[in-house]
Amino acid sequence: MIKFHTVGGYSEVGKNMSILEIDDDAIILDMGLFLPPIVELENKKGEVYTERSLRTIEALPDDKKISKDLRKKIRAILIGHAHLDHVGAVPYMEYNYKAPIVGTPFTMEFLKAIAEDGNFVLKNQTRTVHPNSSITIKGKKDIKVEFINMTHSTLQTAMVVIHTPKGAIVYANDFKFDNYPIIGKKPNYQRLKELGKQGVLALIVDSIYANVEKKTPSEKIARGLLEDVLFTTDNQKSGLFVTTFSSHIARLKSIVDCGVKLNRKIVFVGRSLHRYVSVASKVNLAPFTNKIKLVRYRNQVERALKKVSRDPTEWMVVCTGHQGEPGSILDRLTRGVLPYKFSSKDHVVFSSAVIPSVWSIANRQKLEKKMKAAGTRIFTDVHVSGHCMREDLRDLVGMLQPQHIIPAHAGIDKTTAMAELASELGYKLGKTVHLMQNGNKLSLG
Amino acid sequence: MIKFHTVGGYSEVGKNMSILEIDDDAIILDMGLFLPPIVELENKKGEVYTERSLRTIEALPDDKKISKDLRKKIRAILIGHAHLDHVGAVPYMEYNYKAPIVGTPFTMEFLKAIAEDGNFVLKNQTRTVHPNSSITIKGKKDIKVEFINMTHSTLQTAMVVIHTPKGAIVYANDFKFDNYPIIGKKPNYQRLKELGKQGVLALIVDSIYANVEKKTPSEKIARGLLEDVLFTTDNQKSGLFVTTFSSHIARLKSIVDCGVKLNRKIVFVGRSLHRYVSVASKVNLAPFTNKIKLVRYRNQVERALKKVSRDPTEWMVVCTGHQGEPGSILDRLTRGVLPYKFSSKDHVVFSSAVIPSVWSIANRQKLEKKMKAAGTRIFTDVHVSGHCMREDLRDLVGMLQPQHIIPAHAGIDKTTAMAELASELGYKLGKTVHLMQNGNKLSLG
Amino acid sequence: MIKFHTVGGYSEVGKNMSILEIDDDAIILDMGLFLPPIVELENKKGEVYTERSLRTIEALPDDKKISKDLRKKIRAILIGHAHLDHVGAVPYMEYNYKAPIVGTPFTMEFLKAIAEDGNFVLKNQTRTVHPNSSITIKGKKDIKVEFINMTHSTLQTAMVVIHTPKGAIVYANDFKFDNYPIIGKKPNYQRLKELGKQGVLALIVDSIYANVEKKTPSEKIARGLLEDVLFTTDNQKSGLFVTTFSSHIARLKSIVDCGVKLNRKIVFVGRSLHRYVSVASKVNLAPFTNKIKLVRYRNQVERALKKVSRDPTEWMVVCTGHQGEPGSILDRLTRGVLPYKFSSKDHVVFSSAVIPSVWSIANRQKLEKKMKAAGTRIFTDVHVSGHCMREDLRDLVGMLQPQHIIPAHAGIDKTTAMAELASELGYKLGKTVHLMQNGNKLSLG
Amino acid sequence: MIKFHTVGGYSEVGKNMSILEIDDDAIILDMGLFLPPIVELENKKGEVYTERSLRTIEALPDDKKISKDLRKKIRAILIGHAHLDHVGAVPYMEYNYKAPIVGTPFTMEFLKAIAEDGNFVLKNQTRTVHPNSSITIKGKKDIKVEFINMTHSTLQTAMVVIHTPKGAIVYANDFKFDNYPIIGKKPNYQRLKELGKQGVLALIVDSIYANVEKKTPSEKIARGLLEDVLFTTDNQKSGLFVTTFSSHIARLKSIVDCGVKLNRKIVFVGRSLHRYVSVASKVNLAPFTNKIKLVRYRNQVERALKKVSRDPTEWMVVCTGHQGEPGSILDRLTRGVLPYKFSSKDHVVFSSAVIPSVWSIANRQKLEKKMKAAGTRIFTDVHVSGHCMREDLRDLVGMLQPQHIIPAHAGIDKTTAMAELASELGYKLGKTVHLMQNGNKLSLG
User: Fold this and answer.
1) How far apart, in whole angstroms, are the C-alpha atoms of residue A6 and residue A19?
2) At A25, phi and psi to the nearest 5?
3) Is the N or the C terminus of chain C less surrounded, counting Cβ atoms within 10 Å?
């Protein structure tokens, strides 16, 4: 008996959590946060969260509805990658389960870092699996779990494969197919094709951009866009600030490489940058730390920016705030509470997209408005996505040839597009492709 | 006395034509076609045009309103680059003037080719100027004209500078700032800055994307996107068709380079591809002709496609039809009148954007629908624009520091954005930045 | 055993056709055309269709896949209302079945008229049922079928209810809830509530605007908008042309009422207007025929327009062409082939929306462009929809309380919104609300 | 010498203020607030404003740049109507001028009310002019000023006409042409046509919707939409809340009329509703006060809502909060700080549009999300605009035949559309139609 239970991430983009039940054992896949209500909250108050406060604003996956029986069967919590919408809820919720937390080294280091920052002590042990290797989960029957190397917008992202007696279950949430990932290896296409031949029972798949009829551009394109903006515009006499997703270590490498070419000293400023870069450094995946200065604490930040303000043309400042988050470095810079004042001489490069939540849009618009009022020059969307689009999905389905497809990572407004693609490819809605919502279950044999 | 007269291209995107009057002499800048009504016409009938039929559908700039006096003063017809909306009207209209037609070698060769194709005998002589060099136009007073090397989506595009006693007039219609142009040199920033120091009276400037708050990505990005689509998707067992703007020789080079890497034989099919590649070849700017087979005539086309159909995986077909034009190769392929049948094994790559006219949108949608019905896989928008966006414009204004700015290459629905940028930079609407429409004139001193 | 089979209209907007199987009997619900490919075809050629040509362009529901067994069980073809996407395929396909065709008087008269126009002789007999009454279909077991009065954008639209041993099946395709319908009665809410109490097994429901979070405005609003445009703008010295959906008899009544108030003589011009008004007249539902002149044939049309051209201010011309259809009166007027020439003195009122197919958009844009070139004043979207929106759907579900919901009248890109509404109301995707595509079947007990 | 100076409202939608200079005299037209930054501010703090704080966030028209000479010439401050973006800055700024404040009775009463609420004592006297009458402004030369009756979304809106020796200056900011205004008279078309014959030197005109190619629907349409929502949906067992712009007295009358028909008791709740209704009452233009209960103070509000909560089906609550404003009644209801709890039994009708500022969008989205979480049923956009669209503008220009047109009430992103319309009608950009920004001046003879 194999059953798939959706807990979170099937009615919204965020708080991903699913459970795979195999006879007398079960496995949790991801345990993430829903960020938009947290952003809203942050606009008002400081940033002290508790499980209770996060549950109230529905920022945690709703695992209260899981039956006692099922809860008892949980043997592992598998985490696919180090983004908050996949791992961020672990510190708040893991104590309810008795099961090791498993992920790649970067992911597990990141988990430890956020736990520590929040003064959590994890009740369960963590176990690491290297990309392209396997692990056995102990249960009534042992379960083999494989972490296949994948490309995405953070490091050591894995497609998680659970081998069941009825075939493999592939949890592809999130990924893109990128042959030029800047840091790390290409996706392991070879293994995907082998799995396809051996038999895949079900594919749970990132469908957030299934409606975009393209192949997602590679990270090398983002690098090229950065080069265009940094090397082709007139910035010799300008202050230079670049911001991106702190988790995007490959992007940070490209930014640093550009800064070096521009002969500028490089300083990284901001708490979440510090956290992700430190974590990457621990697992030896931040091949640029010798070229940068990394500052985190308030007085360090102030000293660094004071230095920059003496001769801005000597520096490139990489900082937080690409979503206009209250309390981020860019927010504080525009509010005038840091010892650097934006002027018409400064360039700010956003190597990111605006997250399509109304609070992020509002925060970002406010930030840009202040910069424009100061005459500061802005470059936006110097970015490519880390999520697969329709043509990547078509290739994935072609390689895996799964019996069942379960679109994930959004509500049915978006997963519908994956269902359409599947039916183009011969799948039948309700039979072999399944539109699910949070709190559903599906029998897979 | 310096006056600027708008003839075409200030109330629509297309049929660019302006006149600069300097005391007793005058110069025509561009003489292009308005393509959307031609596309509409082509949907109905074949393709025989006359001056009269083109005037009826308003596809030619309306030079009938030019006064006799001004007409007599015309001393030269300067063409900025080899796109039909800048040069395509010359064969139909040049006989009304007595003045040499001047442009870069590629542009002039292209002009001769279209004249020949249409059985026109040009009444006026053509003169070539190399990029980054000058020429003197004879008149009551001699006028020095300079063609500055610029990057755009075709070869040997120039910013045309007319030196007047009151300062330089810079005609920047069209351009982008691209430091990685694949074929040809970078823009001549040095010369632009010098002009800025010497004094620029007026800048007439491509404003079609002035509303896009970005820097236009370089051609290297388009190359990277092609590599993503061609090297990262599963196409070893597929037929491979690529289509792009026939005038875009740099793009064609990237496509050929990819084809070579894929170990495929490459054939170029279609009349306009043949025309542009032949012209580029004549001026030694098609550094890939030895790697391709170039076919044009019906029986050649049929023979070539028959060969491809025997083993599609050996070939890459580069062909016309990116806008779904009736009569193009892709159109005829989907209509089943050529000896190759699209199937679910074929990939078609559109290295182009859809032109935003309702007829192009309809043609293209029809084309794609037929392909999809056959199960053919489609990759669209594998492309970057050749037009400057807001941040390029900001840099251009910064370098040239012109006294007056005249937004061009669109109606005021779009040129307004350039006026806004100018007013950000200190220009005054109606005083130093001028929103014009077809048939206006402006006194510049 | 009750099974529901989708034939057409579940993967596109158009060619509606479903089959309800009840043990040894079965009933067809609607048999309509898919119009966009027909519009495309009309742009090229004249208008002679055959079953074969319509099947080629996929304009007919694909009933070839219906099993022989099921085909033999068909006992009736029920038609909900007189729109071509619900009834237009009957003349081409009914001969394949041996079953009476059943609908309201207006619908059946319309069917006869289109059959006659196309020189079809219907093989099956037609039977009429008055709104708010029932009929018994003979089969292995008799089946009671009820036609409940509903409001929509044509006359005598019915919600069709099939009474089965397991509960009622309600076919609500198409409708709106309008208490001010201008012609005809309000929806029969009373009967819907009774059905809800007795037990509804399944609801098949028009979901095209389920994503619009509104209640559809009533027909009285369209009347008010017409009054605004006709009575508040300065048109005493203008020619006045109004166009709308020919099937929309209530709208035509409002237009005529306005024309009378303006003291203008009113002439209806165009073939499809003639057809629908004649049909409405036969069933005594065109309470304005004494106030208008109705012309159809070429020489009548020309004579009428010649008269209008003598003093346009005396007339209101109601004519075909609201979608810019080639061959319609407005198309021919703008092409200059009729004895009336549009000028800057004329007003043209479009009491319609543009159908969102690329060919309709292109045709309409072309039409408007020509009118604008002549300086003619245009009023568009003087219209409200005939389809229910989300809040009507919520009320319908509230009244009927069906066990199962099957969203219809569009592909899953749109029916998804109805599924979302249903899940808000407690239904479960895949269990009690079913996203279907053409060619699916669903067991209902 | 006649000069027109733009102060505010020509680079944004809001803070309208202009100055007309006629030889040795000058007149101010409007003095309004820019609301979006105030909304942003309100999201953070309470609502205590000072001139200084409002200047800091650029919510006041920037009159600091007005020359001393011009300032001395000011003889009157004319206010067109009682909206905050036209009159709201008066209390903060009038003391800088020595000139009477002139407007219609409703407008002047409203001014007094907001001054009083803010504890301002106006330094200048106020003078009232009835719609369709005139007044003489004393200056070096006397100036005749006329207030023509116009329709808009508040009462006693006027087109202000200043008679100069060179012709009339018509300030049409804001208006719509509505023959069915519910309260008040139709626009005085007769007088507009007379002015056109006598000679209009310049028209300053509301262009915010000049890009919408329609005629604005009348207020009767909004009434019809309300009737659809209130009489056609199933609400007998529901609580009923309606919200709209507090200044929109005609809309409030329609709402009350509907409430009476539904046999519900009606209570108006909220500070700004109280203010506007009281003001309307003072000038005898609130013909519904006997049918409602009007509450303002906290304890009154609480008592009223407690009563409602006892039997919601007996009441209709008209309240503030249509933009989700923090502190409004709807905001407080959803935050649970008032003695009424929204449930799935309640209906909330928004007879308003969302103001297109990111803060209003965010506030409103937040409000709706909370309502939806409670299962409350929402009806949005039950509304028509109070601003003229393109076809009204065409009629206005036709009647007035002004020599010059100055588009107003938005930045050039929107006023451009009015310039386009004007050039369709024969005006020349820069000659007779003038795109202006804040702080410009234009010589009119």
Assistant:
1) 6
2) -125, 160
3) N
Chain D interface with B: residues with Cβ < 8 Å: 411-413, 416-417, 419-420, 423, 428-430, 434-437, 440
**D148-194 confidence digits (pLDDT tens):** 999 999 999 999 999 999 999 999 999 999 999 999 999 999 999 99
CA distances to A163, B310, C195, C417, D232 from C205, rounded to whole Å, are 42, 50, 16, 12, 19
Q: Examine the pLDDT at A43 and tell me if it is beyond 70.
A: no
Query: CA D252, D253, D257 angle in degrees (round to 5)?
Result: 115
Sheet containing C157-164: give its strands across: C133-137, C143-150, C157-164, C167-172, C200-206, C404-408
What counts of helices (H) and strands (E) characterise chain D? 15, 19
Nearest to C361 among B40, B358, B366 (CB): B358
**Residue-level pLDDT at A198:** 97
Q: Name every chain C residue with its beta carbon within 8 A of the beta carbon of A412.
A: 416, 419-420, 429
Note whether B379 contacts A228, CB cutoff 8 Å. no
- Across the interface, whether the CB atoms of B435 and D435 are under 8 A apart is answered yes
CA triplet A438, A439, A444: central angle to 5 degrees?
100
Interface pTM, i.e. ipTM:
0.93
Q: Chains touching chain D at 3 or more Cβ pairs under 8 angstroms?
A: A, B, C
Residues of chain B with pLDDT under 70: 43-48
Q: Which residues from D are below 8 Å from B416, CB to CB?
A: 412-413, 416
Cβ contacts of B420 on chain A, cutoff 8 Å: none
pLDDT at A179 over 80: yes
Which residues from B are below 8 Å from A399, CB to CB? 234
Mean pLDDT, all residues of chain D: 95
Chain D residue closest in CA terms to C383: D217
Q: What backbone torsions phi and psi does residue C289 show, to the nearest 5 degrees?
A: -65, -25
For an interface test with D, give the residue of A358, A359, A363, A364 to mutate (most D CBs within 10 A).
A358
Angle C145-C149-C152 (CA atoms, 0-180°, nearest 5)?
120
Local structure of A369: helix, strand or coil? helix
Burial C78-111 (b: 16+ CB within 10 A, else e): bbbbbbbbbbbbbbbbbeebebbbbbbbbbbbbb
Q: Please compute the mean of the pLDDT values over residues A365-380 and round it to a whole number.
A: 93
pLDDT of residue B45: 55
SS3 for B281?
Answer: helix
Provide the 10 A C-beta neighbour count for residue A29.
26
Q: Could you give the CA distance from residue D36 to residue C28 in angstroms, rounded to a whole number?
A: 57
Tokens of A294: 């990394």
Taking only Cα atoms into account, the Rg of chain A, rounded to an integer number of angstroms, comes to 22
pLDDT, one tens digit per residue, over A51-68 is: 998 998 899 999 999 999
Which residues, listed in sequence order, are joined to residue A157 by a DSSP beta bridge?
A: A150
Domains of chain D are: 2-215+386-443 (3.60.15.10), 219-379 (3.40.50.10710)
**H-helix segments, B57-188:** 68-73, 84-87, 90-93, 105-117
Q: Average pLDDT in the C189-206 region?
A: 98
Q: Do D430 and B428 touch (CB under 8 A)?
A: no
Q: Which amino acid is at D52?
A: R
Q: In what order do the strands lie in the sheet with B101-103?
A: B126-128, B101-103, B74-78, B25-29, B17-22, B2-8, B441-443
Give this prediction's pTM. 0.90
Q: Report the C-alpha gap between A426 and A433 in whole angstroms.
A: 10
Tens of pLDDT along D74-131? 999 999 999 999 999 999 999 999 999 999 999 999 999 999 999 999 999 999 999 9
Query: Residue A420: its chain C contacts at CB < 8 A?
Result: 411-413
Q: Cβ contact (<8 Å) for D213 and C378?
A: yes
pLDDT digits (tens, 9 = 90+) for B301-358: 999 999 999 999 999 999 999 999 989 999 999 999 999 999 999 999 999 999 988 8
